[in-house]
Design goal:
29% of the residues lie in helices and 31% in strands. It is α+β, with helices and mostly antiparallel strands. It folds into 2 domains: 45 residues, no CATH class; 49 residues, no CATH class. The protein has a 4-stranded antiparallel beta sheet, with no helix packed on it. Strands 5-6-7 form a 3-stranded antiparallel beta sheet, covered by helices on one side. The longest helix has 19 residues. The radius of gyration is 23 Å and the shape is elongated.
């Protein structure tokens, strides 16, 4: 009897494994708009935004309301030669990275321009 139950469970698990959904991936030809975001137009002309994370890839139609609004007010930037050093706090301690001035993405450019504006405003006072 136990053997019959074990075979039945094995058969159910194997059948379920065959029907598992395919893992979503960023399609070939997608254009990177930031380090973890890609824009893609499928064969039907529908526009998609793909987001990558440590937990996998997600997809949403372009123009859909954003579920996550990023707040960059806590990101700090300092100039170091031809690069900019960024720092933002996280629950695990500060996260730091460095980017060349010629390779800044949209978020980094926004933070750097904000820092420059605040320094020039302080210098005028």
């Amino acid at each position: 009897m136990k053997l019959l139950i074990a075979f039945s469970i094995s058969a159910v698990l194997l059948a379920a494994a065959d029907q598992a959904p395919q893992r979503l991936t960023v399609p070939q030809g997608a254009v990177a708009t930031s380090p973890s975001t890609f824009r893609y137009i499928d064969s039907e002309g529908k526009k998609w935004i793909y987001h990558t994370s440590p937990f996998g890839v997600t997809r949403e139609p372009e123009g859909a309301p954003q579920r996550f609004v990023r707040d960059y007010s806590n990101v700090k930037a300092t100039e170091q030669g031809d690069s900019i050093r960024f720092e933002r706090p996280t629950p695990f301690g500060p996260f730091r990275w460095q980017t060349k001035k010629s390779e800044l993405n949209e978020m980094e450019r926004t933070v750097w321009e904000r820092e420059q504006a605040s320094h020039s405003a302080a210098a005028q006072e």
